[in-house]
Specification:
Blueprint lengths: L5 E4 H30 L8 H25 L1 E4 L13 E7 L5 E7 L10 E3 L3 H6 L7 E6 L2 E12 L3
Parallel strand pairs: 1-2, 4-5
Antiparallel strand pairs: 3-4, 3-7, 6-7
Helix pairs in contact: 1-2
Length: 161
């Protein structure tokens, strides 16, 4: 089975590379030192510190493996590749809710970089999926747990500075 592509900004890619480097160069060594110290306490079969360190080692190695997998399948979206004639990944979109007139500006990003609290929504979310391919002036219906709401696209620009 082919691995699914992960869409990332250059900033997001750099963040994951930095995290991977930190885990490999710093955390691995710290955990190995914990294991060495715990072994000095004697019998490892009844050593809680040793068991804790081994569990932490497994967690760190699992995170390293996940990050390597993510970075292997990463597709980086560059500033000059962002189109602003229609909503797509890495666009900043201002929309207006039809009935209330409420305006909202969101950045449409891949799922690994979404953070709704800061206005970065995934292209896989209900509103993100409904926005894809829309142009200024077009309307979209968003299905959410509270029902369906209608929004209009007011502006599209690049979300990458």
């Amino acid at each position: 089975m082919a691995e699914e592509t992960t869409l990332l900004t250059e900033e997001g890619h750099r963040k994951y590379v930095d995290r991977l480097n930190y885990l490999k160069t710093v955390r691995r060594g710290q955990v190995a030192e914990r294991i060495r110290t715990a072994k000095e306490f004697g019998d490892i079969s009844e050593n809680a510190e040793y068991e804790s360190a081994k569990a932490e080692q497994a967690f760190v190695e699992g995170e390293i493996s996940e990050l390597e997998k993510l970075l292997r399948r990463a597709q980086i979206i560059k500033k000059n590749e962002v189109r602003t004639d229609e909503v797509g990944l890495m666009t900043r979109v201002t929309i207006e809710e039809a009935s209330s007139g409420e305006k909202m500006t969101v950045d449409l990003v891949g799922s690994k970089e979404s953070d709704p609290k800061t206005g970065r929504i995934s292209n896989e979310s209900p509103i993100g999926a409904a926005l894809l391919g829309k142009r200024v002036g077009q309307s979209l219906d968003v299905k959410a747990p509270g029902g369906v709401s209608t929004w209009k696209v007011l502006e599209i620009k690049s979300a990458l500075a």
